[in-house]
């Protein structure tokens, strides 16, 4: 009987001195929330039956309610806990003790492969995982022969478990909403395996009997995530077809939509199932980004249509980095990952150049076609359409500016840098187009004078210039050389049109003004009334000009009426010796000036700077004091600094009572008060004195 003692000491009912690491009869579970498999240390010299019997003895000493009953970990239920009545009987001798011991071993036998398969059939993936881990550990101290046979069975079950777990994980996007409990089961199984791998690797040295550890399920999980991501990104059938998109555009739409929707699911439903060290969102985001970027690069390196180049650049610069972040929760996570651009910088620049070159040619061709159509409309001699009472050329007034603006807007929608580059290119094209327009306008003006709608077409073309002026002022800086070129060309077109429109009026007025000198200002009021009446007949035609150009042409008329009056005063045809005669002429000039001012102002003239010149000249004629005359001359020269000695000398011919020395004194005073001539005050410089 004594020979049995070594067996008793090392058997399932003996307590070995070298097994303190095993669960003893008086030891409590350190972490009730962890799986039983985690709490059963591997005792290198203990049998599987010893480990399981001691666990069950410990469970029998605890109240039934202390047994674990959680969903995620249920290796031992309350029913399997050992009751007090199952303890070995005392006083039965060695035979009784052995019989009781073997009875206990039978009762505490670890879960079988069959039980695990039942759990798998019930989709209890976490429970099945914990049972398998326990079975795996229970074999660590068996003989090599037993280990191989039993391990082979366990590995077969492991293959089934792995297939089920990773099939679930592969469908995470779908199950996160439709069956979150099953997905959580799979994640818990993954976590159990990863935890067990870490426990195994922390042993020193690792248990050689655990030859299938580490199982590296985390690596399998990452490979599964990658496979799932690529499958979803390739499955374009899930995205409705947009008939306006090419195959490339449809694929970009699908990938962007899939990535955004799936990452939103990861943030809201999947990430919370995993521990932080899995970096779940980062893993998913990087796999989605890598696949998207690889496809974008593949597209960029292929031959793309212009519209697909635009779409791809839009995704690279705007949609991908910005629209993807419209969801606040998703944006917060994406900012942590910092995925980068869909395309390498060099490839992106190459694509941008292709787009800019193509867009520049497209807009240039559009402008050329537009001008050709406009010229054709002129030749058809049709009255232009009116917009708000103003003759307007629809093509040039709208289409040209819209073509340039649309090109700039499309480029701006890609990125501010691309938009700025195209704007500079197109603004260089505009001066060239306007020069072609001016040349075509001049050709029409000279060759089409007999057209029925000659003047309305001229007016429509003048009105077109306003659109270009407004666009240029708004979009070009003052220092831009192209701006001055554009405004100068527009001025040429406008003034050329004004000259034709005013030609007939000015021809009619010329003989009327001659009557002032011919009659020596007798009946000057009647002459002025005739001039006003003739001029007023033309204003109705001019009102079809847009307001800025109407005011401009009225100012030209106002200036011409004042200028022609001054020309008559400088003709040296009138010389008055007495102050009374000079007083009478001054009154007539003042009256004519008042009538002229009233007429021009009532018809919309804004050239108020012209209103004082004739009254000042009248005052110089009226004054007899030399000092007062000099003051008035100084005031005149200040207001109209382009007046010169030749002008004043011819005008003073009217005051025949001035001596030569007095005239010289007055002229000398003018020379001392010269000033630079503002562009708007060009009045006397356009008057030639014979």
From TrEMBL:
One Gene Ontology MF term: SNARE binding
Alphabetical list of Pfam families matching this protein: Sec6
Annotated GO CC locations: exocyst
One GO BP annotation of this record: exocyst localization
InterPro entries linked to this entry: EXOC3/Sec6 (IPR010326), EXOC3/Sec6_C (IPR042532)
Source organism, top-level taxon: Eukaryota
PANTHER family reported in the protein's UniProt record: EXOCYST COMPLEX COMPONENT SEC6-RELATED, TUMOR NECROSIS FACTOR ALPHA-INDUCED PROTEIN 2
Family affiliation: Belongs to the SEC6 family.
Name of the protein: Tumor necrosis factor alpha-induced protein 2
Lineage: Eukaryota, Metazoa, Chordata, Craniata, Vertebrata
Encoding gene, per UniProt annotation: TNFAIP2
């Amino acid at each position: 009987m004594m020979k049995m003692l070594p067996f008793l000491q090392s058997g399932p009912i003996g307590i070995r001195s070298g097994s303190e690491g095993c669960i003893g009869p008086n030891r409590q579970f350190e972490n009730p929330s962890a799986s039983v498999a985690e709490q059963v240390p591997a005792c290198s010299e203990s049998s599987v039956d010893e480990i399981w019997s001691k666990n069950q003895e410990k469970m029998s000493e605890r109240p039934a309610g202390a047994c674990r009953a959680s969903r995620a970990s249920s290796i031992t239920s309350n029913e399997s806990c050992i009751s007090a009545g199952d303890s070995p009987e005392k006083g039965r001798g060695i035979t009784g003790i052995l019989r009781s011991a073997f009875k206990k071993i039978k009762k505490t036998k670890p879960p079988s492969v069959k039980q695990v398969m039942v759990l798998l059939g019930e989709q209890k993936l976490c429970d099945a995982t914990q049972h398998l881990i326990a079975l795996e550990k229970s074999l660590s101290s068996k003989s090599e022969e037993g280990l191989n046979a039993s391990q082979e069975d366990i590995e077969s079950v492991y293959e089934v478990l792995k297939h089920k777990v990773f099939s679930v994980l592969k469908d995470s996007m779908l199950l996160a909403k439709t069956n979150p409990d099953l997905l959580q089961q799979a994640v818990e199984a993954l976590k159990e395996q990863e935890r067990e791998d870490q426990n195994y690797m922390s042993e020193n040295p690792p248990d050689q009997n655990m030859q299938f550890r580490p199982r590296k399920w985390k690596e399998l999980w990452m490979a599964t995530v990658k496979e799932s991501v690529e499958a979803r990104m390739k499955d374009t059938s899930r995205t409705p077809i947009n008939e306006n998109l090419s195959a490339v555009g449809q694929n970009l739409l699908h990938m962007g939509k899939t990535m955004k929707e799936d990452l939103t699911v990861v943030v809201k439903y999947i990430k919370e199932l995993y521990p932080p060290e899995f970096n779940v969102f980062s893993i998913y985001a990087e796999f989605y980004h890598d696949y998207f970027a690889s496809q974008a690069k593949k597209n960029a390196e292929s031959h793309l249509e212009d519209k697909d180049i635009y779409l791809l650049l839009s995704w690279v610069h705007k949609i991908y980095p910005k629209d993807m972040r419209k969801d606040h929760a998703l944006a917060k996570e994406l900012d942590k990952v910092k995925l980068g651009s869909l395309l390498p910088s060099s490839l992106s620049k190459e694509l941008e150049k292709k787009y800019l070159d193509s867009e520049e040619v497209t807009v240039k061709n559009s402008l050329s076609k537009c001008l050709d159509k406009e010229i054709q409309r002129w030749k058809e001699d049709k009255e232009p359409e009116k917009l708000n009472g103003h003759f307007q050329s629809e093509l040039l007034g709208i289409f040209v500016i819209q073509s340039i603006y649309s090109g700039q807007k499309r480029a701006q929608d890609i990125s501010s840098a691309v938009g700025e580059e195209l704007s500079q290119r197109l603004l260089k094209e505009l001066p060239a187009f306007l020069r072609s327009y001016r040349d075509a306008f001049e050709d029409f003006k000279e060759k089409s004078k007999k057209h029925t709608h000659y003047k309305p077409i001229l007016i429509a073309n003048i009105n077109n210039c306003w659109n270009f002026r407004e666009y240029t002022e708004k979009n070009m800086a003052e220092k831009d050389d192209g701006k001055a070129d554009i405004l100068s060309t527009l001025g040429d077109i406008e003034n050329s049109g004004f000259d034709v429109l005013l030609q007939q009026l000015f021809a009619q007025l010329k003989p009327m003004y001659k009557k002032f000198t011919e009659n020596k200002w007798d009946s000057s009021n009647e002459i002025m009334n005739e001039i006003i009446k003739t001029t007023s007949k033309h204003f109705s035609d001019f009102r079809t000009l847009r307001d800025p150009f109407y005011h401009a042409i009225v100012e030209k008329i106002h200036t011409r009426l004042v200028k022609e009056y001054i020309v008559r005063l400088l003709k040296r045809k009138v010389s008055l010796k007495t102050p009374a005669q000079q007083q009478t002429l001054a009154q007539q000039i003042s009256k004519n000036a008042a009538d002229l001012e009233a007429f021009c102002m009532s018809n919309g003239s804004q050239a108020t700077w012209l209103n004082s010149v004739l009254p000042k000249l009248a005052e110089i004629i009226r004054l007899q004091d030399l000092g007062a005359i000099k003051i008035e001359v100084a005031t005149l020269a200040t207001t109209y600094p382009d007046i010169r000695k030749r002008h004043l000398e011819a005008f003073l011919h009217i005051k025949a009572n001035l001596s030569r020395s007095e005239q010289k004194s007055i002229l000398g005073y003018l020379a001392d008060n010269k000033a630079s001539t503002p562009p708007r005050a060009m009045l006397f410089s356009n008057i030639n004195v014979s």
